[in-house]
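Hey team,

Filing this mostly as a record. A colleague (T.K.) asked me to run one chain through the structure pipeline before their review meeting, and I want the input and output archived in the tracker in case anyone asks later how it was produced. No errors, nothing strange. Just documentation.

Input sequence:
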Amino acid sequence: MECNVVDLQSVESVAQRVERTFGRLDVLVNNAGIGGGSSPLHQLSPDVWDTVMNTNLRGVFYCIRSFAPLMIQGRAGHIINISSLAGKNALPNGAAYSASKWGLNGLTYSVAEELRVHNIRVSVVCPGSVHTDFTPHAGKSPEKMLQPADVAHVVAMIVTQAPQSFASEILLRPTQKP
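Output structure:
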């Protein structure tokens, strides 16, 4: 099922379809995200800032707002937000992206505290550079970069861990510097 994460009605419509079709939701992975160009913040257009924040942060809010009630109703679930190491470290010429990921990390920690009473685990995964078409990684060796399967593996580990605990944050780096 597809939706536009920056359109609340689109997200709510998919949540309703999931409820009608399956009656529950076990796992929500918030992975939609965009970069923010590569310019200093003082040269960044307000439209680019808004687009990055709306996709990377507001989109996650919309998805949690729309899907968490299904998990609360089922008294179980796991929400995994895919952030970035840019949400932990400074990213010159990427302030909008970095700010959106710092915000996503804070949102994740707060929502984890709100939902744990309902037996819902909320985690954030912060990968380093992943070899995708997302953004060019000039000067980095693709074979040394993280691969999408590396991130998927971490998500699988999180959702299959023992029920008495949860990994609230995972920082994922390649073995060798790309």
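Quick notes for T.K.: The helical segments are 8-22, 46-74, 95-115, 148-159. The first strand starts at residue 27 and ends at 30.
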